[in-house]
Amino acid sequence: MSLAQPDPRADTAAPAPRFGRRWTICALLLFATTINYVDRQVIGILKPVLGAEFGWSEIDYGNIVFAFQASYAVGLLLMGRLLDWLGTRRGYTFAVGFWSLAAMAHAAVGSVGGFIAARTALGLGEAGNFPAAIKAVTDWFPRRERALAVGILNAGANIGAMLTPLVVPAIVLTLGWRWAFVITGGLGLFWLAAWLAIYRRPEETAQLSAAELAHIRSSPIEAGSKTPWLGLLRHRQTWAYAVGKFLTDPIWWLYLFWLPDFFSRGFHLDLKSFAIPLVVVYLSADVGSVGGGWLSSRLMKRGRSPNAARKIAMLICALAVLPVVLAPRVHDVWTAVALISLAAAAHQGWSANLLTLPSDLFPGRVVSSVVGLGGMFGAIGGMLIAKVASAILQQTGSYIPIFLIAGMAYLFALLLIHLLVPRMQPAKLD
Predict the structure, then answer these.
(1) Are the C-beta atoms of 288 and 345 separated by less than 8 Å?
(2) What is the C-alpha separation between 384 and 234, in angstroms, rounded?
(3) Residues 373-424: pLDDT tens digits?
(4) Does domain 18-199+229-420 have CATH number 1.20.58.410?
C-alpha cells in the first residue's frame, strides 16, 4: 500500500489508544540506543586499566577516540543514505549486527593499532542507530508526539552510560577486561531477534488498530522524489541542524570518554569507586532527556508553534548547562557530580529537541539523510574535541579549559540555529 494513500483502517473517529503499538516500537528503539551506548562507553570505563596495562599516553588514548569519531562521521554520512535505500527494518538490522561484532572484536586486540582498528569498525556500525531510530519515529508518530518519543529513545544513551560503570567493573574483576567487550557486544545480537519479530511499517502491522493508524497519520507522510546530498546542503534547515550537532555533540563525547579520568585525576576514584558518581550523572541525564522532549511537546499542546516550543525548551537547557564550568574548580566530589549531572540532563533535553528538528523541517523520505548529515558534523566535532582534550591534558593536566568549552557551547549553538531558521519553516525540496 502506498504511503500517499489512506489506509481503510484510518476511516474512524475512535480515539487512539494512549499506550498503543507505537510505544512498543519506541521501547525497541530505547533498548537499541541503550546497547549502542554501552558498547561505545566500555573503552572509557576501562581507560585507567588499559592505559596501565599497555602504557598508553594521553595522545594514544586521544587517537583511539579520534578513530571512533572519524569512522562514526563517515558512517553517519553513509548510513543515512543506506537507510533511506534499505528501509528502517533492514537497515537497522545491518547496523546493529555490524556494530555488535565490532564491539566483540575489541577482545581480540592488544595494541594501540588494534584498538584503533576495532574502534573504526565500531564507529561505522554505530552510526546507523540514530538515523534508523529517527526514521522509525517519523514513520510511527505524529508530529506532536515525536519530541517525546525521541526523548524516550534518547534516554537509552543515558541508561547505557549508567549501566556500563555498574556492569563492566564487575565483569573485569571477575573474568578480565576482554570478556567485558565480548559480553556487552553480544547484547545487540539478542536485540536483533526481537526487532525482526516485531518491526514493520504501520500499514503492514496487523496488530495496529484503525484508531491508532489514523492518529499516526494525522501528520501525513509526504510523497516526492529522492533528494541528493548536495540538494540537502543547499537548505538553511540542514545547516541549522548540522551546526547544532557540530557544537554540542562533542560535549557528550567528553562526558562519555573522559569523565572516568576526570574523577580519577581530581578525586582519586578508581574502577571500584567511580561507578556511583557516573550512575548519578547518567540517571540525571535520563530525566533530562525525557523532560526536554516532554517540555516542547507540552508547549505545542498548549498552542505554541513548533518553532517557539523547540527553541524555548532548548534555551532553558542551554542556560542550565552553564554552571558546569565550575566543576573542575570545586573540591568536593559530590558538588562536582551535581554540576555535571545538571549539565548532562540539560544536554539530553537539548538533544531530544535537536534530534526532532529534521522531522519538523523535512519530509519523511529524507529524514534519515538529514540526520546522517547532521550526525556526521557532530562526529567531526567529536574528532576535534578528542584532539583538543588530549592535547590540553597532555600539556596542562587541567580540565578547566575543557569544562569552559562544555559550558558555553549550547548558547552559541542556539544563536546560530535561530539565525539560520528564525521561523523553522519546512524546506521546499521539490
Answers:
(1) yes
(2) 25
(3) 888 888 889 889 888 998 999 888 899 999 999 999 999 999 999 999 998 8
(4) no
